[in-house]
Structure formats: structure tokens, C-alpha cells
Known about the structure:
Helix 12 (270-296) crosses helix 13 and helix 12 (270-296) runs parallel beside helix 15 (356-380). The two termini are 33 Å apart. Strand 1 (55-59), helix 3 and strand 2 (77-79) form a beta-alpha-beta unit. It is built from 16 helices and four strands. It has helices spanning 2-17, 19-51, 65-73, 85-90, 105-110, 126-153, 176-182, 184-211, 214-219, 224-254, 260-265, 270-296, 301-324, 339-349, 356-380, 384-387; strands spanning 55-59, 77-79, 98-100, 118-120. By secondary structure, the protein is mainly alpha-helical. A four-stranded mixed sheet has the order 2-1-3-4. The protein folds into two domains: 2-43 and 176-387, no CATH class; 53-161. The longest helix is centred in the N-terminal third of the chain and has 33 residues, at 19-51.
Amino acid sequence: MRQLVTVLRKELLDGVRDRRVWLVVLVTALVSGPLTLLLVSKFLADLKSKAEAREVLVENAQAAPRLVNFFERQGRVVEPPPPDVRARIEAGRFDDAVLVVPDGFEDDLSRGRLVELSILHDSNRAKSTTAAVTLERLVGGFGQELTLQRLLVRSIDPALIRTVRPTLVALGSSRGGATRLLFLVPLVALVSAVIGALAIAIDVTAGERERGSLEPLLMNPVNPWALVLGKWLAVCAASLVTLVGTVASFAVAGQVIRDEGLSAAFQFGAAEAGYTLAVLGPFCLFISSVLMLAALFARGHKEAQATTSYIVSLVSIAPSLSMFLSLQDASWQLLVPALGQNMVLARVFRGSPVTLLDVLTPALVCLGLTLVTLLAKTRLVGRESIVFAKG
Length: 391
């Protein structure tokens, strides 16, 4: 135990002396939460403002006076689009949508013909898609009004054509809708835990070998377990500090969100913070040991950075799989590091029930894998091929 404490103190002092490393750790921890919520808030505000925009762009509006009159009665202002609107949409430089009215629109309506109206928009831009949906809804309202007028002229009760009326009943959590965007929160927390451990994990392994200090350290009568555990605890400390800072920054940022919808959906109190630390705490222990093991095989600092970057990428991609592949919550995900933690935290943020088994299963998996990686490092750390980076 005395040897372990000595190694731990040595690694912590070395880490504290490197101010650049701790600057990265603290900036990542304190800025990631507010920045994430700021970006999500701005994205939602932009979509909301686009959906509520009073201005609608109509090409060839003079051919549809009744349609223009309907838009104006809905409080909209009809404006002509730019002359090069099609080219700008195709080039991805236009955030609005344009309604195209064909010639002879009024004549076709008077004759009872079906009129096709095109809505030009960029499907790759969220603002343009939102504007297109708004235009589609307005045109649909005009069509319903016109249909009702035709029925009333013929003394037909409009209720006769309404045989079925669907009603949406939302049974999900009131916070579920925002979870589609707030998947970024557990993702940022996961990545921050990795970034916090990354620099020190490389420094205590490949960095010491590159500086030539690993061999003299092994020449001392130090138990391999004490050496490995001391270094590992130093890396874990950095990872946990980053995680705690990130959780604290989310808690503070959640109190100053300006978007009312996001503020109502995103509730990050003591319970959510406790769940986040309980779920990601064991993951910090696991990722610290994995990063150290990966860096142990690297010949130098640069090679260690390249090797560990793959691990950072895997952690970043794993939580996104559940969204892009539309994965339903399943028990097997709890057995996959990063994926299991993301699933549990997603349940927390959308207000779904979380059981003790949901928290313990990924924690036990991480602790088991941590023990395996620590055992592997203990057996490898004294090998000549590791100490001198041979092979």
C-alpha cells in the first residue's frame, strides 16, 4: 500500500506540473455542458422562428389571388422569391422554402380540376424543411376551406365527408420529444470522461518510456501491482474530475436556458446528476485502464495518441448508433460499454423508469473488464519488449 501511494503521489505531482494537460481537462469539463445546451437551444430557437415566420415565398403569386388572400387572412405576408432561388437551393445556400404556383391556377380551380403545387426546399437543411412543412400545412388549410365552400354551395353538410377522425394520444414521457436532441448530453459526458483520462494515460506509459524514466522506475523494488494501480488511479482521478466538472456545468447551464421548451424538457437536478455519476463513474475506471493498455504498446507519444484516438472514436460513435439505427432499449446493450451507459442515461433524461439492475449491470461489466486490463498491464509492464518498445 505504501508503494502504491508513493507511485500515485508521484504521478499526480507530474500531472499537476503539466499545466497544459489540466487546462484541457478543466476547459473540457466546464465548457462542454453550457456549450452543448447553447447549441441545442439555438437550434430549437431557429426551427421555432422559422415555423412561426410571417413571411412566405410564393412564385407567380399573381396567378393565385384566392390563395394569396387565404395566406393573408392567416396573418402571413406573401413575398416573391429571389430570381436565382432554384440555383441557390441546389447549391445548399437557401434556408427557406418556395411555393410555385402554375399558370392557369384560378381557371383550374373554377373547373374543379386537381391543381399540383410544388414546394421547393433543401431537404438537407433543417430550416428549409421546417419552412416547407409550414407551407404544406397552409396549402392544406386552403384546400380544406375550398372544399367546405363547394359543399356548402351545393347544400351538402361538410360533416358527411368526415367519417373518421384520428386523435393522437401521447403516452410517452413529456420529456421524450426533447430526448431526440438531448442525446448529446450523455454523449458529451462520455467523451469528456475519455478526454480527461487521455493525456495522463499516455504520459504515464508511452510518455515515461519516451523520456527514459520507465526503466529506472522498474529498477526500484516496486511491486508490479502497486506500480500499475498507482498510475491507473492517477488517470482515474483526472477522468473523474473531468466528469464531475461536466456534470456540474450541465447543472448550472440547465438553470440559464432561455428556450422555454428546452428548459421544460431538460431537467438536470440532483437526481439526474446522481444517476450520471453513478452510471459513468465505473466507466471512468474502465476507460482509464483501456487507454493505459493501448498506450503501453505504443513506441512513443505520437504513436500512443494515434492508437488511443481510435478508442475515443469508438466511444463517440457507440451512443449515436442507438439513434441512427433506431435501436430499441434491450438488455444486451447493458453489456456493451458506452452503449449501456448511453441507454441508461437516455432513460433518465426522457423520464422513463430506471431500475437498480439497469445501473448495476453496466457498472459490473466495466469493473470486470477493468480488472482484466489491469491484470494484463501487470504482466506486461516488466517485459523487455514493453520497457524498450521493441517489436
